[in-house]
Amino acid sequence: MNAVVIIDKPAGLTSHDVVNRVRRILGQRSVGHLGTLDPMATGVLPLVVGNLTRLAQFYTTSEKCYQGTIRFGFATDTYDAEGEATSAPKEINLKAEDLEPLCARFRGVIEQTPPPFSAKKIHGVPAYKLARKKKDVELKPVQVEIKEFDIFEVHADRAQFTARVASGTYMRSVAHDLGQLLSCGAHLESLRRTAVAEFTLQDAHTLEQLAEAAGNSGPGNLSDDFFVHPRKLLPQLPSVTADEATAARIRAGRPVNLPDVSRAPQVKVFAGQRELLAIAKRVAGTLFQPKIVFCA
User: Fold this and answer.
1) Cα–Cα distances in Å, from 100 out to 97, 115, 195?
2) Which of 179, 175, 169, 178 is nearest to 146 (CA)?
3) In sequence order, what are the residues at sequence separation of 6 or more whose Cβ sits closer than 8 angstroms to the Cβ of residue 12?
4) What's the pTM?
5) What does the buried/exposed string (b/e) look like for 219-253 if buried means 16 or more CB atoms within 10 Å of the residue's CB?
6) In this predicted model, what pLDDT tens digit does every residue of 215-260 receive, in sequence order?
7) Exposed, middle or buried: residue 29 (CB in 10 Å: 0-12, 13-18, 19+)?
8) Is 8 a catalytic residue?
9) Whole-angstrom Cα distance, residue 150 to residue 44?
C-alpha cells in the first residue's frame, strides 16, 4: 500500500503512538509522519505509507497553521498546560487591546528560544531528556517566521488565537514569551493544528473512523476517500501522465522524454490518474531523470 492518510490526532497520544496504531490498522510496517505534534496537541497529522514515506524529504520545511488558547497568570516549565507551574498564579483580566500591540512583535521573522522540553539537541542530547532530569537547559535563540498571529477572543485570563508559521516555530514559546512581556506568566493551554502544507482538517479522519472502516472492509479495500488523492500531493510540482512504455522506463529508473510542463525543473509522473510513479528532474529540454521512484 502506497498512500497518504491525514489523521486528526487526539490529545494524549504522541505522534509516534499514532503511527504505531495506523501500522496495526492498515497492516503496514512502513508508516511515517510529516511533522510531530506534542501529545497535548490535536489536529492535522499527515502520515505517509509504503513507498510514499520517501515524500518526507519534501515536507521538512512545511508551513503550518494553528488555533489555540493561551492562559495568562502563571508560567510552566514545559510552556504548556502539562507542565508544572514555575510562578505563583496571578489573577488576570485582560482585554484585546492589551494584547494586540504585543502580538505585533511576534509577526514576521523573529528570534525565538525553543522550550526546554523540546527535541532540540544540546551536545547531541534532546533538550527534553535533560529537562526531565532537572538539568540546566540552555538553548540558543533561532530565527523563525510567524506569518500570521491574531488574537480573536479574550476572556479574563485566556486568549484564543490563530497562527500561520514557518517550520520550526514553537507556539509554546510564543505563549511563554507573551507572559514574560506582560510580567504575569503564561502558557499554552490548548493547541489544534489546522493545516500542514497542503493538508487540512477537511482531509482528516479520526483513528476510530479509520479502524472501523478497515475492520469492515479490510485494510486493502479501504475507500479512496480515506487517502489523499496523489495528484493533490506537492501542488507546487506539475503533473505529467506517462504512457505504458514511458512508465516502464521510469520504473527501471531510466531517463525519459516527457511533455514540456512550463519548463518546470521537477515534475510528478503518474501512470493513470492515481498511481504516482516518480518525482523526475529535468536534465535538458524534455529529458527527465527519475530521482525518486515510488512504484518499481
Assistant:
1) 6, 23, 24
2) 169
3) 39, 40
4) 0.87
5) beebeeebbbebeebbeebbbbbbeeebbeebbee
6) 877 777 778 888 999 999 999 999 999 999 999 999 998 999 888 7
7) exposed
8) no
9) 20
Q: What domains, with CATH codes, occur in the chain?
A: 3-62+198-228 (3.30.2350.10), 64-196 (3.30.2350.10), 231-293 (2.30.130.10)
Catalytic residue from among 8, 17, 38, 243: 38
In contact, 66 and 165? CB cutoff 8 Å: yes
Three-class secondary structure assignment of 247-260:
HHHHHCCCCEECCC
Which residue shows C-alpha cell 505563549? 175
**Residue 145 bridge partners (DSSP):** 109
User: For residue 263, what is its C-alpha cell?
Assistant: 519548463
β-bridge partners, 239: 268
Going by their DSSP bridges, the two strands 266-271 and 239-241 should be labelled as parallel
What percent of the chain is predicted at pLDDT more than 90? 64
Please answer whether residues 85 and 187 qualify as being in contact, where contact means their C-beta atoms are separated by less than 8 angstroms: no
pLDDT in tens, 28-62: 999 999 988 989 999 999 999 999 999 999 998 99
Under a CB-based contact definition with an 8 Å cutoff, are residues 217 and 209 in contact?
no
